[in-house]
């Protein structure tokens, strides 16, 4: 393995020793030497199987077979989650073939960031992750279960399920995806139409027509946003079956993978003799593998916060610096929109996950000898699933990319850098995704224009006030201020200005996610404005320098003058009322910083 990867991993292990040790002791104490339901009183157990049929009750009375929990984020509004409607029946039948029982333990909420972008409901998006984690904990709290399967794909759903899974780290847990929708109109065309609409060249009817041709069927959106980045990360942590991430919904192969995953969880329960709980399986090396895979593919910046949060739930301490240092040694090996023209279906056709695993293993960039739901070692993930005579098998893949413009080699990467930088300076600490930018050594020095809502930028753009070089400062978007909504409404107007030759950049304590475009965006800024960060003292006209060459982000204002300025005041009533936001005050106030996962669930925050 690359020495730099080993050194960073050892740094994380050393940093995490006290918390990881305490965590492993806790999950060891939580495990049962027999089925967990054997610890229940007769009244408890009777309630637990009261609704079951006679045959299932007979199995659950015994202590020889596992009871598997199904936790699902199914709903009909999320295209990615709609296929989950039929999964519980498939899972129950598959588990029953092994002699066990599967029970639907609970549903968790699942909101779609695509629906809430630019809307008031987006203020709840990040906080929904913690709600999902707590909802999953409620589902698993009955102590009936010896293992679990998690049905979730999109933005905050998978991270929420992962946080809860780590909390129940004594259980074996398998994640089951549903796959991407078929490709619609090219992503480049979709972006072009959005910019046309932003410039007023087409009407809403043409925009809706293009959007509907892009998001058009069951399955995940096909660009490489947070949903598909989630699937990549989960598979690299060994929590999917090999090659399961990007098989399309409603296919025979997809159904067979779901059945196989359901059977697999019963093979790693305490009763199987091959016990592998998720809390032991996912260790510091698994987390490093997840980060390396994210960087090698130019994945969603949302995963920075999410990996930090679910790693911490397993006693593993990660920070921005770890991402930055790994990015220095991990090359960019894929071009998937918004980092290129291809979508995840094209990535799958070019060799997909199996080829990516092979490249990263051969290059010594990931820890191969980790535990997975299929046993020890990631080499089996270099094969792809297929059907032979109706049976699910894994086969070798071609050793070269089916499309070198989509998947590159370690010897000839698209970039020698993983495309993620930490920027530091007197404004604070932020991250910037460079993998989708025209060049990754951008330096912008320009006057600030201060906004406190993304809609203000759209209005200024339409009024013709932004035809110049500037740095857009969008503040009071941080975790404690507004729950850290995504700011995608900024992408089309800033993209138009950039295309027109203006040097523009964004500085914000909010976030942009996997759909971050070509505009340099210093996001996740800490400390946030509501905590008195320097961003709260920036005035329109102040000069800001964003320097990707040196990794600096500075406000070029005399320190003496800055010390005399008052922090701007947040108008919370405009953003804390309506669309349910008033119900989240306690959670919002307790969210940690972006660099510590923007999480409300840990007592020490």
What does this structure look like?
By secondary structure, the protein is α/β, with parallel strands linked by helices. It folds into three domains: 3-182 and 217-395, no CATH class; 183-216, no CATH class; 420-596, IlvD/EDD C-terminal domain-like (Glucose Oxidase, domain 1, 3-Layer(bba) Sandwich), CATH 3.50.30. Helix content is 37%, strand content 13%. It has 22 helices and 16 strands. The chain has helices at residues 3-30, 42-49, 54-61, 87-97, 113-116, 125-140, 157-167, 187-198, 204-214, 226-236, 252-266, 278-281, 284-297, 302-313, 320-329, 344-349, 352-362, 454-462, 479-482, 491-499, 559-564, 585-589, and strands spanning 67-72, 101-107, 147-151, 173-175, 371-372, 375-376, 384-388, 391-395, 420-425, 428-433, 443-451, 470-474, 504-508, 521-526, 543-547, 552-555. The strands form four sheets. An eight-stranded mixed β-sheet has the order 9-10-14-13-12-11-15-16. The chain has a four-stranded parallel β-sheet with strand order 2-1-3-4, with helices on both faces. A two-stranded antiparallel ribbon has the order 5-6. α8 packs antiparallel against α9. Residues 405-598 form the Dihydroxy-acid/6-phosphogluconate dehydratase C-terminal domain. It catalyses: 6-phospho-D-gluconate = 2-dehydro-3-deoxy-6-phospho-D-gluconate + H2O. Residues 68-379 form the Dihydroxy-acid/6-phosphogluconate dehydratase N-terminal domain.
């Amino acid at each position: 393995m690359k020495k730099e990867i080993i050194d960073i991993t050892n740094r994380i292990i050393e940093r995490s020793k006290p918390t990881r040790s305490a965590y492993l002791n806790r999950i060891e104490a939580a495990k049962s030497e027999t089925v967990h339901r054997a610890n229940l009183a007769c009244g408890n157990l009777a309630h637990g199987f009261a609704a079951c049929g006679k045959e299932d009750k007979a199995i659950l009375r015994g202590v020889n077979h596992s009871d598997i929990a199904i936790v699902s984020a199914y709903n009909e509004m999320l295209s990615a989650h709609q296929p989950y409607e039929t999964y519980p029946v498939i899972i129950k039948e598959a588990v029953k073939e092994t002699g066990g029982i599967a029970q639907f333990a609970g549903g968790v909420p699942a909101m779609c960031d695509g629906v809430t972008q630019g809307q008031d409901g987006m203020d709840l998006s990040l906080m929904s992750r913690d709600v999902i984690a707590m909802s999953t904990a409620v589902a698993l709290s009955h102590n009936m279960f010896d293992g679990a399967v998690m049905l979730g794909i999109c933005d905050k759903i998978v991270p929420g399920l992962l946080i809860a899974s780590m909390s129940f780290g004594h259980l074996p847990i398998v994640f089951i995806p549903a796959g991407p929708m078929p490709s619609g109109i090219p992503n480049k065309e979709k972006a072009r139409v959005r910019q046309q609409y932003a410039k007023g060249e087409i009407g809403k009817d043409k925009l809706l027509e293009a959007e509907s041709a892009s998001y058009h069927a069951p399955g995940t959106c096909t660009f490489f946003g947070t949903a598909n980045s989630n699937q990549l990360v989960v598979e690299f942590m060994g929590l999917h079956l090999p090659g399961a991430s990007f098989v399309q919904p409603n296919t025979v192969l997809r159904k067979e993978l779901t059945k196989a995953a359901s059977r697999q969880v019963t093979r790693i329960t305490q009763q199987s003799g091959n016990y592998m709980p998720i809390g032991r399986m996912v260790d510091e090396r698994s987390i490093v593998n997840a980060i390396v895979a994210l960087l090698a593919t130019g994945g969603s910046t949302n995963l920075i916060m999410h990996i930090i949060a679910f790693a911490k739930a397993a006693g593993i301490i990660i920070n921005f610096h770890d991402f930055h240092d790994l990015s220095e040694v991990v090359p960019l090996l894929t071009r998937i929109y918004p980092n290129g023209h291809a979508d995840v279906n094209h990535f799958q056709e070019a060799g997909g996950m199996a080829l990516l695993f092979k490249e990263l293993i051969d290059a010594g960039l990931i820890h191969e000898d980790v535990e997975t739901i299929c046993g020890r070692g990631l080499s089996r993930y270099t094969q792809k699933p297929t059907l032979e005579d109706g049976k699910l098998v894994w086969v070798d893949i071609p050793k070269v990319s089916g499309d070198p413009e989509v998947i590159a080699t370690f010897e000839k990467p698209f970039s020698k850098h993983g495309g993620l930088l930490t920027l530091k300076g007197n404004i604070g600490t932020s991250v910037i995704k460079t993998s989708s930018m025209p060049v990754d050594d951008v330096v912008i020095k320009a006057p600030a224009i201060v906004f406190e809502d993304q809609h203000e930028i759209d209005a200024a753009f339409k009024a013709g006030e932004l035809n110049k070089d500037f740095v857009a400062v969008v503040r009071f978007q941080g975790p404690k201020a507004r729950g850290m909504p995504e700011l995608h409404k900024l992408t089309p107007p800033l993209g138009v200005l950039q295309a027109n030759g203006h040097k523009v950049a964004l500085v914000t304590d909010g976030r942009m996610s996997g759909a971050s475009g070509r505009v340099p965006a210093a996001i996740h800024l800490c400390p946030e404005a509501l905590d008195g960060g320097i961003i709260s003292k920036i005035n329109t006209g102040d000069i800001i320098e964003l320097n990707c060459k040196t990794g600096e982000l500075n406000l070029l204002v005399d320190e003496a003058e800055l010390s005399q300025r008052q922090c701007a005041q947040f108008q919370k009533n405009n953003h804390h009322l309506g669309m349910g936001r008033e119900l989240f005050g306690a959670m919002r106030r307790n969210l940690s910083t972006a660099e510590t996962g923007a999480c409300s669930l840990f007592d020490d925050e």
